[in-house]
Structures are given as structure tokens and as C-alpha cells.
Amino acid sequence: MFLSRFPRLSPQILHLSRIRASLPVNHLRMSSDNSVPAEAAIAKLTETEQKNPKTVSEEQWKNVLSPEAFHITRKAGTEPKFSGKYDKFFKSGKYNCICCGAELFVSDDKYNSGCGWPAFSKSVEGDKNIIRIPDNSYGYERTEVRCKQCNAHLGHVFDDGPKETGERYCINSVAISFAEKKSE
Ligand SMILES: [Zn+2]
């Protein structure tokens, strides 16, 4: 018979190959290289995409972000006032972009502004990973802040901050992920 010319794969080999195929693409790489934080959505995409966050398509972001995070970071949405998990949160650590993992803020610069969203008096290394864009929507003159690496909408920056910098970065909790400072 025609089919008998093909050796049959044993059920054990089939089982092993299925396990291998089901491992996450970045499983091995991510365990030895922590350049992209595991909480960042981009960690679920390929290495090429991780190196070039700006090339990730809207469809790809949709697949790896929660619907809320997608709406806020990729569609410039705003989370409801006082709803964010980092609004009244003051642990010691740093805040990374939820999309690409870029380091954006540290807890030392976070303060309670009472405005209903997480507030920071400055960003990491003077906007090292942040871009500012004039935003005239809703009849206001505001300055939008986005992640420089992946273009995620983060929030706005206002000039009513504490004396030291005079600025208040008003950021959506959903756009950032917190990484606790490890005690040495
Ligand atoms: Zn980013």
C-alpha cells in the first residue's frame, strides 16, 4: 500500500514535539536576558519586534495588551479619575512602559497630587524615554507625553508641579508597570 512506505512516528515522539511547539517563543531567551521586563507586553512578541518596538503593528499590540491598556496607550485614552492602581501607591521602585518596558519614572519622584492619577515631578534622566507633543484636543492647550521607544500614550505633563521642577507628569496607571526595588 502507498501509506506503508512512510514510517509511523511513535506516539512518544509526537508527544515530545507537541510540548516543544507549545513553549513560548521567548521562553529560553527571556530567562537569561532580562533587557525587556517580563511584564511588558512586547515580551510576548518576537526578538526582532522587541528590538524595534516602533515596528509593532496596531494588530500585534492588540493581541498582547489588555483591552484597557490598548485603548489608553495606542488610542490615547484616559483611565477614570481615582481608578488607577498606582494613584495612591507609594512603594519603592521604578515604573516601566506597559508596552515596551522602557524605564519611565522612579518612585522617588512620585507624589500625591490629589488629581486622581499617578503624578511624578520628573521622568527618568530628563525625558530620556519620553517625548512631548502639543495636544490641543477638547479645547485645551496641553502637552501629551508618549514613550519614546514605542510611541505609547502615557498621559500629559502640566506646569503645576512641586517647586523642585515645577512640573507634574499626570500618568495613566494602565500605561505603566511597577517593578519593586530589590533589597540588596
Ligand atoms: Zn514604550
From TrEMBL:
Q: From the Swiss-Prot or TrEMBL record, give the protein name.
A: Peptide-methionine (R)-S-oxide reductase
UniProt-listed InterPro entries:
Met_Sox_Rdtase_MsrB, Met_Sox_Rdtase_MsrB_dom, Mss4-like_sf
The keyword Ion transport appears for this protein: no
**Per the record, what is one GO cellular component?**
cytoplasm
Q: How is the cofactor bound?
A: Binds 1 zinc ion per subunit.
Q: Where is the MsrB domain?
A: 58-181
Superkingdom field: Eukaryota
Query: Its Gene Ontology biological processes?
Result: protein repair; response to oxidative stress
**Keywords in alphabetical order:** Metal-binding, Oxidoreductase, Zinc
UniProt key word Metal-binding:
yes
Describe the task this protein carries out.
Methionine-sulfoxide reductase that specifically reduces methionine (R)-sulfoxide back to methionine. While in many cases methionine oxidation is the result of random oxidation following oxidative stress, methionine oxidation is also a post-translational modification that takes place on specific residues.
E.C. code: 1.8.4.12
Cofactor(s) this protein cannot do without: Zn(2+)
Note the PROSITE patterns from the entry: MSRB (PS51790)
Q: Which family does it belong to?
A: Belongs to the MsrB Met sulfoxide reductase family.
Task: List GO molecular-function terms, semicolon-separated.
Answer: metal ion binding; peptide-methionine (R)-S-oxide reductase activity
Catalytic activity as recorded in UniProt: L-methionyl-[protein] + [thioredoxin]-disulfide + H2O = L-methionyl-(R)-S-oxide-[protein] + [thioredoxin]-dithiol
Task: Report the Pfam families cross-referenced here.
Answer: SelR
